[in-house]
Design brief:
By secondary structure, the chain is mainly alpha-helical. It has five helices and no strands. Helix 3 crosses helix 5.
Length: about 120
């Protein structure tokens, strides 16, 4: 699967971070982990929205007056997106970590001249 390469890469990154404790506390590493967690959360939210859309679609084609037309046009009940795995590297950030991450991000943005 496409995500397997990414998971493998992250596993290697964490193995390196375990060998170098200073890396785990460095600003760029903390920022990277925060961004990865944010991306994973956004993916999760999109999956939930997708499943909501599938639910609405399935209800619509299963109830009158749409059901006869769905049958005529061979519309079928769509399966929900199911994902059983959760990467071990995804962590939830508490408010203190989130605040520190935002401060680091602002610091790097100002250094790089990014608005």
């Amino acid at each position: 699967m496409p995500g397997d390469d990414f998971d493998e890469l992250l596993s290697k990154l964490f193995a390196i971070a375990e060998r170098y404790p200073d890396l785990k506390t460095s600003e760029p590493f903390v920022l990277l982990m925060s961004k990865i967690a944010d991306a994973e959360m956004e993916i999760l939210n999109k999956r939930v929205k997708y499943n909501e859309k599938v639910l609405n679609y399935n209800i619509r084609i299963s109830t009158f007056p749409s059901a006869p037309f769905a049958y005529i046009f061979t519309r079928k009940i769509e399966p929900y997106f199911q994902w059983t795995g959760k990467p071990e590297w995804v962590t939830t950030l508490d408010e203190e970590k989130r605040k520190r991450t935002d401060e680091i991000l602002e610091k790097w943005r100002s250094k790089l001249g990014i608005e």
